[in-house]
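Hi R.,

Here's the chain you asked about this morning:
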Amino acid sequence: MNKKTFAERCYSFLKKVPRGKVTTYKEIALALNTKAYRAVGNALRKNPLPGSEKGKIPCHRVIKTNGDVGDFYLGRKKKIEILKKEGIEIRNGKINLKKFIYSFKK
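And the predicted structure, written out as tokens:
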């Protein structure tokens, strides 16, 4: 049996977040039944398939719990550009989580 690593489990959840929605490190951790928010961040930092194309792991859709856009491997400015193309409204570097958060609880 091929057991997924913590990072692979993080990527699986992140792939569920559709265009036009975002999630947080905390939301992914909670979906994994852990409070290891920093471990989620570390896993995403090592993303082997970054990008917004189909089949890629869309790390640009992960933001901070306070709504701040946060960092990105291509830079914060590029992250904001990609999110805006996906329909996310960003004001003063922040995103309205009530409007754009994706919930893993279904």
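Residues 6-100 form a domain with the Arc Repressor Mutant, subunit A fold (CATH 1.10.10.10).

Let me know if you need anything else.
M.
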